[in-house]
From TrEMBL:
Cofactors: [2Fe-2S] cluster
Record's keyword annotation contains Lyase: no
Organism: Extensimonas vulgaris
Protein name: Formate dehydrogenase gamma subunit
Entries under Gene3D superfamilies matching the protein: Glutaredoxin, NADH-quinone oxidoreductase subunit E
Cofactor comment: Binds 1 [2Fe-2S] cluster.
Pfam families named among the record's database cross-references: 2Fe-2S_thioredx
Keywords: 2Fe-2S, Iron, Iron-sulfur, Metal-binding
Molecular function GO labels: 2 iron, 2 sulfur cluster binding; metal ion binding; NADH dehydrogenase activity
């Protein structure tokens, strides 16, 4: 995970309960670790460091094993994301259609490095690997919304629509 201006605060009790709920829901299924990590990230937006020993204990794994899986998959965040998450696909089909240029453009427009969260916490910029729109690349996801064939101009437009006035660049 890249630099972030926000230092995560200690996890609050309701968030710890959400981790405990995810553990209870998944601990007995075969290959529980990945679905469990997904459930934690779905609930909290990231996998907090406090969750690692809880998950390790529940699945009878070492903390290093859990941490290793979190760092191996780019998908999992170890820090809370910004209020808006912008994902730009860098997999093959999108690479061939200008994804790298699009990502560099997003960095400039947002004032935020890839894998990073802007200092004001407004936005996190993440390269991702396939959003399932390979035939209409390059693809971008902003929040829950997917966008196909995104040009740098269109990206600027989408970002302006997605960030509030106070957060816009
Ligand atoms: S390669 Fe980018 S959406 Fe699949």
């Amino acid at each position: 995970m890249g630099p972030s201006a926000m230092k995560p605060l200690p996890l609050k009790a309701p968030d710890l309960s959400k981790v405990a709920e995810a553990i209870a829901a998944h601990r007995d299924q075969p290959g529980a670790l990945l679905p469990l990590l997904h459930a934690v990230q779905d609930a909290l937006g990231y996998v907090p460091s406090e969750a690692v020993p809880m998950i390790a204990r529940a699945l009878d794994l070492s903390r290093a094993e859990v941490h290793g899986v979190i760092s191996y998959y780019h998908f999992f965040r170890s820090e809370p994301p910004g209020r808006q998450v912008v994902q730009i696909c860098r997999a093959e089909a999108c690479q061939a259609c200008g994804a790298e240029e699009l990502l560099a453009h997003a960095e400039r427009v947002l004032g935020c490095a890839r894998h990073g969260t802007r200092a004001d916490g407004a936005v996190t910029l993440e390269p991702v690997y396939c959003l399932g729109l390979c035939a209409s690349s390059p693809a971008v996801q902003i929040g829950a919304k997917l966008h196909a064939r995104v040009t740098p101009e269109r990206l600027e437009q989408l970002l302006a629509e997605s960030l509030t006035d106070a957060e816009a660049v």
